[in-house]
Amino acid sequence: MSERPIVAVVVFPGSNDDRDAAWALGALGAEPVFVWHEQEELPETTGAIILPGGFSYGDYLRCGAIASVAPAMDAVRRFAASGGPVLGICNGFQILCEARLLPGILRPNRHLEFVCRDATVLVEGAKTLFTSRCEAGQELVLPVKHGEGAWHADEGQFVRLAARGQIVLRYQADVNGSLGNVAGIVNEAGNVMGLMPHPEHAVDPLLGSADGGILLAALVDAAAEHVLAAA
Amino acid sequence: MRATVLVRPKDGILDPQGEAVRGSLEKLGFAIGSIRVGRVIDIELSAEDHTFAREEIERMCSELLANPLIESFEIRLDET
User: Fold this and answer.
1) Which stretches in chain B have pLDDT values below 50?
2) Contact state of B20 with A112 under an 8 Å Cβ cutoff
3) Total domains in the fold of chain A
4) Which of A33-65 are b and which e, b meaning 16 or more Cβ less than 10 Å from the residue's Cβ?
């Protein structure tokens, strides 16, 4: 077994942050492996999965909708059901919502503008697999770049998620009209997370912030643990 | 058999696309109350039985064509 845990990066037609995700994972001690959307199986010792950002299938129908039924997503579902850590970034978050692996949906930004800038998010849930290296209330500076990032759920669902601690990240100030300023959520089991900001673009201080590395390093930790547990 | 599916943003759901179109039409001088933008999907099916066709399309809608959180859909079967 490789000492570096394998993290599968699923590549859809139109994914464009897959290489940055792989670079960041490599820099943080993981072994990134690209998995094409038509592949039905993941590498045998996969420790975690990233669904990267981009514009899968040209955002046709609804962002993430067509990718959510791609063959590779059956493998993602099985992996998630077995407790494996899955992180969806931006378009990956949209795909996880459309696949109903996460609650809610990402809608067009309320102000109708594409946002592309650094945003400050607050870590609300520091006890997840993905925030194990964070403290509650910690501020992270992460780039956002999306036109459809306003997370939406019905009021009852939102209240239940908040009560169960599934709201992991909130924007410090409104970015896109997201309900409750939600920037990232986790599923009830705690092993599937989606977020609109891009941690993979923020792993080197040279690029303005290395805060994304704090989240991705936690994912690499979780991947190593999952590989050990499955062995 | 041919069918048309109309997918609309649900009542009460903010429709930024509709808002953008309304703004542009107002700039062109049209008086607009509100505009909601949805999607039209024309489908040609090999099925001949109407009941079966409707059930198939309902499944297509709930599995992919519409997201029930934010969209409603209406199925129109071509009777000819």
Assistant:
1) none
2) yes
3) 1
4) eebebebeebeebbbbbbbbbbbbbebebbbbb
